[in-house]
Every structure is written in structure tokens, then in C-alpha cells.
């Protein structure tokens, strides 16, 4: 089977486009293939997203708690007579979680009961997810609520409360409950149940600050700077993921200035400095602008010998992948106003932060880390004296036997973690709920493994991360958390 579109009826109504995809599919797959579409179980979605006739099978998806059979009866109307086997192409075994929410958990018994409603009457289902996973790097998505400012980025983990967990574990009630139901409705005996993957806690890894992000991406002599009168979105810089640094100069006023950025996608940290002075100790953090809480920032008066410089580091927190705001550009998408007047003449630098060992712009982080780790470990940072600054922290995780593990980021703020150059994804324990990042065994090697952390705000005061043998979704405040129910 080959799916030519997924929930297209939620977005468009273009039969010529769908027929074009069918021709492409046959060209690559031949004629001995069942092609199908999937759309949500409503008449409007199916009218828009399906292809009339019997050349392409029309399947449906719907919430696990819905009665499946009215959806299958509707599905039947969009297939040729006698050619509509009931098929739920997304039977939700769990649900995803956004930053700042409680972990989404669904009841194992209820989930299994709804699967049985389908199988007991000779229906079919695709488990979504059968096996939870991980949004390594920057591949986590996002959703929106009432409008595009009601932005909800996904966790790095895509465990999904699936029967097979992010790390491959199956020793849980949901796996057992679904297996019992499947066993009742299959003629062939099920394979034996495997054991959980072996995991190991390697303990504490001491880190040290090796370099500020702004040291690495000094826009005065760094290749790849784009200049423009007004800020450009990330896509205009040929970039899809990661960060963009926006830099401009302005004249400081005696009573300070008010900075306002109407449209930021998705989160911007704002710093100021005196460009004529030595960088070290000169950069001052003044605030954060977020897509979901966009408020003006007061820039204090600074006594620079010439103009002031403003740095705006914008993070792409994940592209929206469902709903009417799916065309989701990133970066600064509006003028930047200073006391009501647009600030012009910008320099912009792409900082994609793919795997460190693949990104030529910043692969110096690796060599610098090895060099600096030979020096004495710097003194502990005291949080009360710490000023937020994006910076790299590096250390060695020593592995005696290669197994899966998890890195705990309790005590850290927000950032991105790498092991041996591989981007593990975002951590944000201050917002939660995810505390630990999953580290599959193939990323590791026996002996020393280089850990590089880009911390955007405040590091752990003791400058360490801990390798543990379990996931943890208990970080952050639950005061503003929400629970998703299926």
C-alpha cells in the first residue's frame, strides 16, 4: 500500500493535484500497488481529500474515543461498492505532549477496548503510534490553538505514551492490553514478547564553559552575513531550522528606549552592547520576546562612546504541522520598532546547528572543546551573579559498556545538547515536563564521549549533567499545565 496524501481534505480541494500524485506513485511503484488517501471522519474532509472511483482507496482516521462504525459507514460512501474494507489509518494509542503541559497519558484498558470495537467486526487499524520515538535535532513539530500566537511546540520526546516506548520498552500495561486484543483476532500466533532494551546510568559528567555563542558568530568578520534594511525571515536566508541572529545599531537615549517586535517566530532573546568596547563583559541581556507572550522590552540607557548594538537571537521552536497556520515562517516577520520608529540596517546570520560535526560554520566548537577540556575546570558559577548569555559547555561522558541512556538536565534552563556531534534535541526543564533526553546506544562509543551543550540562559550552578537509566517527565511547574484527553 502507498498513501498519496494525508488529511489533505483538512487543507485543500484540488483533485488535479491528487491525480498528479497518483501518476507519480504509479511511475515509481508500478501498477501492482494499492494507493490510498486518509482524511478525518467528516463528510467535508472526505469530499475534499478523496479521489472518486475505485483507483484510489479512501480511508479514515478519527479520535480513539469515537464510535468507529459511523466513521466506517461514512468511509464506505467514498469508495466503490464492495471495495471499502473498514480501515482506521491512525488509531491513536496515546497522544503528543507540548512544552509546559503534563505528559499526555491515555488509559490502557480504554485504548484496548476501542481497538477491539474495530477488530471484533472485521475492521482494521494502523496503530499510531505503535512505537514512540524521538524528535532528534530540530524535528519536533508544533500546533496552534485559537490563533497563530497560541503556539504549542512539541517536546523533544515523541514517546506518545505508545505501547512500545521511546527507548523500545514494552513492559507496560498498554502493550500487554493491545497484545491481548490483537491475539484474539489473528489466525497466526503472535511472536514472543522481547525483553526491554538494556539501559545504563553512567553517572555525572562535569562540564566547563568553553565559549560564548557570540564569540563564535561575531558578525563583524564571520562569513555568511546577510545585510538588509529590514529583518528577513529565516527562509529568505535559505534556512529551515535552528537560530538566526539579527544585529543592528542604534543611539541610546538618556531615559532608555522601548523595543517592540510585533511578530516573532518563535522566541527571541535580546541583548545590547557597546560595539566600540571589548566584547567580554560588555554584552547585556535585556529580555525575551516570545510568540505566545509578545510584550515590549525596555532598553536601558548605556554610556557607549558611539552607537549601541542590539543582538536578537531568534529560535525556531518547531514548525506547525497541522491546522490553518501550517504555512509557518520563522524568524522576525515584522519591522522592529524602537520608540515607535522602525529600526533599519540589519545584519543577519544563520545558525542552523545541525549535527556539530556536519556544520562547517561552527565545527570549531568541537576542536575548541577538546582543547579547552585540557585546561583546568573553571570555578562554579553562582546563579545569583549570572547574567543570561548563550554559551557552550563541554565535557566527557565516560562509557565502559555501550548501552542506551538518558541525560538529565535538571538545574539547566533551556538549550540544545550534542553527543559526539549528534544533535539530541532541545531541553527546557524550567518549563517542563521533559527533564531527560534519550541517548540511544549507537550514538555512544566505549571510552570518552564528547558532550556539548548550548545553554541559552542559565547553566546548572554546579556545571554537570547526569546520565541516568530512565526517562523523566516531572520537570517544570504544573501550575499552568494542561492535560490532553483522547
UniProtKB/TrEMBL annotation:
One GO term of the biological process aspect: carbohydrate metabolic process
Hydrolase in keyword set: yes
Pfam family, one: BetaGal_gal-bd
GO molecular function: beta-galactosidase activity
Limits of the Beta-galactosidase 1-like first all-beta domain: 231-351
UniProt signal peptide: none
Catalytic activity: Hydrolysis of terminal non-reducing beta-D-galactose residues in beta-D-galactosides
Keyword set, alphabetical order: Glycoprotein, Glycosidase, Hydrolase, Signal
Enzyme class: hydrolase
EC number assigned by the record: 3.2.1.23
Glycoside hydrolase 35 catalytic domain: residues covered: 1-184
Limits of the Beta-galactosidase galactose-binding domain: 390-449
SUPFAM superfamilies referenced in this protein's UniProt entry, alphabetically: (Trans)glycosidases (SSF51445), Galactose-binding domain-like (SSF49785)
Family named by the database record: Belongs to the glycosyl hydrolase 35 family.
Protein name: beta-galactosidase
Organism: Anisodus acutangulus
